[in-house]
Amino acid sequence: MTVNKKSAQRAAQLREELNHHNYLYYVLDNPEIPDAEYDRLLRELQTLEKSHPELLTADSPTQRVGAEPLSAFEEVAHEVPMLSLNNCFDEQELSDFDRRVRDGLEKDSVEYVAEPKLDGLAISLLYEKGMLVRGATRGDGSKGENVTQNIRTIDTIPLCLQGKNYPERLEVRGEVIMTRKGFAQLNERQLKNNDKPFANPRNAAAGSLRQLDSRITASRPLEFYCYGIGVSTQTFADRHSEVLQKLKTWGFRLNPEVNVLKGMQACLDYYHAIQAKRDSLDYDIDGVVYKVDRFAEQDILGFVSRAPRWAIAHKFPAQEEMTVLKGIDIQVGRTGALTPVARLEPVFVGGVTVTNATLHNQDEIDRKDVRIGDTVIVRRAGDVIPEVVSAVKAKRPKGARKFKMPTHCPVCDSAVVRLENESVARCSGGLYCGAQQKEAIKHFASRKAMDIDGLGDKLVEQLVDQGLIHDVADLYRLNVEQLVALERMAEKSAQNLVAALDKSKTTTLERFIFALGIRQVGETTARTLAHHYASLESLMQANTDSLLEVEDVGPIVAESIETFFKQQHNDDVIEKLIQAGIHWPAIEKPSAEALTLAGKTFVVTGTLSSMGRTEAKNALQAKGAKVAGSVSKKTDYVVVGVDPGSKASKAEELGVEILDEVAFLTMLGQ
Ligand code: I6G
């Protein structure tokens, strides 16, 4: 056999194998080979086609990457019109439809094929001799647009039919959609590239399919589900349900929820079952479709104007509606996050009356250009909090007002801060803010903070709800009598709690700083701050320049600390805590001579026999050394214990000095 013949044979074999694996993966959801093996086969075919361009065929799985941009889409006339469906919105209308069908067929009960109605774009795919020759949009039902190049990039659309016995000419119809997951990823990408995000998966799918440059379509996560046929040169089934099964064997994905049902009550039950599943599906649906199953019966029923009498879409209540934005309130969350909430003219959407909807944050309001007084589109999907999707600019009244986030917290009047690179504005009230009270107190009492034994989350909630405490300082005024009066609090537990509160008064400065719950100040930063300033007063008076001198404190942390201590009420709470008797041992600032390792950077790896890793870190820091997590050219020493990780080899590679445990202890002077 010549080399060319061998290559041609191998290319044909690869095409067949790859198309078969595509079918197993997308249609049967039952892949036989791992993705990596699929990629290897695809690469082999690509290489073959590159060296023998004459072997390239239209159905090659390599041909899904998009082609040269078009200047416009051609018009396509649908040989069999792509009709629309009549809708019904409630049980009565469904019952009327079923009665008309039964009357027309003179039957008591009819079999229907039911399936979810996907919220995508209807598409026609024409196959000749098993090869995809044209993909077209529905358009006005008579004429659509030729989007073949774009259609070819969608993995779930076969470029050639699988199996055999398919009609010579066959038009397959169905819906192109974008999954919710794909939509979220696409929008993330859009925002990253400073491109406008899409409003919903349907718009994203439509925008993607109407690209003149099919390489853009290829980069979009589009999928296809078939729901029927148009032109067919052969009759191959008596029922719609059989057609669907045949389409599956030829390589098309069916909606897994397709079902044959007998009678109207079964349709109604199906509707409710799909409605209950709606939020857990990875694609948007807006109802279910019922079709009379037998073609002979469909023929008897025929059409009214442009819709079949044998099918109907049973729609879910609308998830998006228009209403007027009357005002914007601010909600302060448990972490101090300020959320703008739209106050709306009541509107019935997604099955309930909605009066409030989230506007997320200032950036979202600005991006959507939503103003008070605007007519807005409100979306309520399932149990998700209703949101304002957009403003209807054409309906904007004169005097519609722009919104600006307040500079002070509406609950406690503390300054509102918004850190660089964060979209959320937050109240800086911390310990003091009513909205944040419970969380602040729980944090204050926690083990790594003031370690108040017996003061769990539930108890904190009870104490705040009963009005016994308002801030953390109130904890130290609690007595046994008050506590015993609480639900499920025995005398002994009350005594223990008062004792634990008393015990917690003896603490350390680093614990106390951590307990204050300053945003961005975790345990490590609290320790660094305590050792750097050595007194609470110095820390409270520190300005940005001073804070930026502290190891590992950047502008964001510095701003957060400064804003916290600028709030008079935080100072008041701290004062009350000190008055209640909280104290800590003075921190001796080490003398310059004691800082023998100042300016040196260490990395510790492996297990040391004489101390734990944290202890080693503390000992180094006490001598003025910096301890880093990874080895770089800036590292001065790597301390290596037993079973070191890759850090030891990295040190060797970079020529960084390695210390064993003995050398390390000597350096510490131990
Ligand atoms: O727009 C449609 C969506 C879903 C349809 C449809 C469908 O079946 C699941 N079926 C037909 C027959 C038509 N439009 C005309």
Account of the 3D structure:
- This protein is an alpha+beta fold and 670 residues long.
- The protein has five domains: 5-63, Orthogonal Bundle (Helix Hairpins); 87-315, D-amino Acid Aminotransferase, Chain A, domain 1, CATH 3.30.470; 320-395, Nucleic acid-binding proteins (OB fold (Dihydrolipoamide Acetyltransferase, E2P)), CATH 2.40.50; 428-589, Orthogonal Bundle (DNA polymerase, domain 1); 601-668, BRCT domain (Rossmann fold).
- 36% of the residues lie in helices and 20% in strands.
- The strands form six sheets. Strands 14, 15, 16, 17, 18, 19 and 20 form a seven-stranded antiparallel beta sheet that branches. A five-stranded mixed beta sheet has the order 2-13-10-3-9. Strands 5-4-7-8 form a four-stranded antiparallel beta sheet.
- Helix 1 (3-26) runs antiparallel to helix 2 (35-51).
- It is globular, with a radius of gyration of 34 Å.
- The site of 8-methoxy-2,3-dimethylquinoxalin-5-ol has 9 residues, from strand 3 and strand 8.
In short:
With 670 residues, this protein is an alpha+beta fold.
What is the SS-derived class?
alpha+beta
How far is it from the N-terminal to the C-terminal residue, by CA?
81 Å
Strand content: 15-25%
Query: What about the largest sheet?
Result: 7 strands, antiparallel
Q: C-alpha Rg, in Å?
A: 34 Å
At the first level of CATH, the class of the largest domain is: Alpha Beta
Shape: globular
Number of domains: 5
Number of strands: 24
Counted by DSSP, the helix tally is 24
Helix content: 25-40%
Low-confidence stretches: none
The mean pLDDT is 92
CATH fold topology of the largest domain: D-amino Acid Aminotransferase, Chain A, domain 1
- Spell out the CATH superfamily of the largest domain: DNA ligase/mRNA capping enzyme
CATH architecture of the largest domain: 2-Layer Sandwich
